Amino acid sequence: MNVMLRPSVPDVPAYAPNGNECALFETAWTRQLPLLLKGPTGCGKTRFVAHMAAKLGLPLTTVSCHDDLTAADLTGRYLLKGGDTVWSDGPLTRAVRDGGICYLDEVVEARKDVAVVLHPLTDDRRILPLERTGEELAAPVSFMLVVSYNPGYQNLLKALKPSTRQRFVAIEFDFLPREREIEVVSAESGLDAAGVAPLVDLARRLRALKGVDLEEGVSTRLLVYCASLIDAGLPVREAVRSAMIEPLTDEPDVRAALIELTGSILR
Ligand SMILES: Nc1ncnc2c1ncn2[C@@H]1O[C@H](COP(=O)(O)OP(=O)(O)OP(=O)(O)O)[C@@H](O)[C@H]1O
Ligand SMILES: [Mg+2]
């Protein structure tokens, strides 16, 4: 049994650290500094935030940012209710009022006006101005803003501006070392380490192709899916194909090459 993956505090989502990120998170929270997490898809960013929020006993609000997400979606808006207009807090405003953690996932996707509300909240002012109500909320000491993005998907139009980026303490995420990743995938899927090891080895080979033939390598998330399918009784090759190859590419040539590579690694 892996002690690291089974925290003694109940209801804390399991998280295997890759470095000193847990201490860094806690220190940033203590010092009221906002945090930026960057790294490839499925490497544990969301799990890390959930783990830390539970460990610190803070309520967590997660917002998945997208092209159409505006500042008002985060702060709130007036809604019509039975002829009256009633103010309704958005998720960011609620998190500030509650003194919890607000986690903005894929923050680069959000509209530009989002930066306007994030800036005063992420420097030493720590205030959230609600333009519509005229309120100016001071964030309580326990409030923390965490944002994440995947630098791989970024294009020039969507890059974070330096004035935004330089308001955060940043942590770079990457996949776990081989043995650690085997432990995590085994704990998450139920498949034993001997069954997981060849999958992790295959994933590591496929990750090396990132940028050449593939936009992204196999994530830990896909490894967990694959191992879960095998644990449930699916033949290994079928599971690998559905969980580790098909999600990576739609190119017939690349797919064929990956299947061939799989055959040579999974004997
Ligand atoms: N360090 C880790 N400890 C425990 N589980 C992990 C870890 N890294 C990855 N996982 C597993 O991988 C899955 C995917 O991780 P997670 O959702 O946190 O990725 P992410 O980095 O947020 O990806 P995305 O950028 O796509 O949102 C988790 O649900 C968990 O099963
Ligand atoms: Mg995530």
From TrEMBL:
Pfam families in the cross-refs: AAA_5, CbbQ_C
Listed SUPFAM superfamilies: P-loop containing nucleoside triphosphate hydrolases (SSF52540)
Signal peptide: none
All copies of domain CbbQ/NirQ/NorQ C-terminal, residue ranges: 181-262
Domain ATPase dynein-related AAA intervals: 34-168
Molecular function terms from GO: ATP binding; ATP hydrolysis activity
Keywords linked to the UniProt accession: ATP-binding, Nucleotide-binding
Similarity annotation: Belongs to the CbbQ/NirQ/NorQ/GpvN family.
Protein name in UniProt: Nitric oxide reductase NorQ protein
Upper classification of the organism: Bacteria, Pseudomonadati, Pseudomonadota, Alphaproteobacteria, Hyphomicrobiales
